[in-house]
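Quick one, probably user error.
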């Protein structure tokens, strides 16, 4: 699959096939994609808890402000930041910015790989951190920043619209109107009908 196509076609999947677990090989490929993300000074400030235990997944779903669909995921990765490593190397800016950016980049790598492999995934940041600390026995030097649900898709969501690149891109200085016409370049969505989009 062409890279842009993988990016365009990836959707947040919130419904998963029951009785179709994610195999160890797929899990390995997802983690492989994750670890090749860029990070500040190649610090790789991340830690991951891979959760397959249905009771723990249910508890995580409650911690995610009771987003009930989360409990239907056969696999969850909880992406965490190693606070000690980050603080020692880059201090406050490392904590507030670099480690968030690099774990986000790695998370997106994993979402794209999931889609490429025919899996579905969803990135969740709306959760109560204190609850996740308790559920996973996390020490205080580890901060959970994202929950990624993974499974085989059992839904085909409509396409949530995106802004055109010219709606958010300036040239040379803020506030200028972009003269370059990037709109729609490479988009697979030209072939879609109105009904395929969310909210149209
Ligand atoms: C930082 C971040 C946090 C998110 N948190 C949640 C969440 O808590 N619950 C949820 O259902 N989706 C969550 N999402 C998924 C977004 O709702 C989704 O990416 C967006 O609606 C666009 O849809 P798409 O991913 O299918 O393109 C999150 C996405 C990101 C990047």
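Nope, works fine. Designed sequence:
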């Amino acid at each position: 699959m062409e890279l842009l196509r993988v990016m365009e076609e990836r959707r947040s999947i919130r419904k998963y096939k029951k009785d179709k677990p994610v195999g160890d090989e797929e899990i390995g490929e997802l983690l492989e994609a994750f670890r090749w993300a860029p990070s500040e000074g190649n610090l790789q400030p991340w830690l991951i808890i891979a959760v397959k235990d249905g009771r723990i997944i249910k508890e995580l779903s409650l911690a995610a402000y009771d987003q009930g669909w989360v409990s239907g995921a056969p696999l969850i990765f909880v992406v965490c930041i190693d606070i000690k490593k980050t603080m020692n190397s880059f201090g406050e800016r490392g904590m507030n910015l670099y480690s968030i950016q690099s774990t986000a980049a790695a998370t997106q790598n994993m979402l794209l790989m999931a889609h490429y492999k025919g899996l579905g995934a969803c990135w969740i940041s709306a959760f109560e951190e204190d609850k996740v600390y308790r559920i996973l026995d996390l020490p205080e030097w580890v901060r959970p920043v994202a929950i990624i649900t993974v499974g085989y898709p059992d839904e085909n969501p409509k396409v949530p619209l995106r802004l055109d690149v010219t709606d958010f891109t300036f040239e040379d200085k803020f506030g200028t109107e972009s003269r370059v016409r990037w709109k729609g370049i490479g988009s697979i969505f030209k072939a879609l009908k109105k009904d395929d989009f969310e909210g149209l």
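The longest strand covers residues 142-151.
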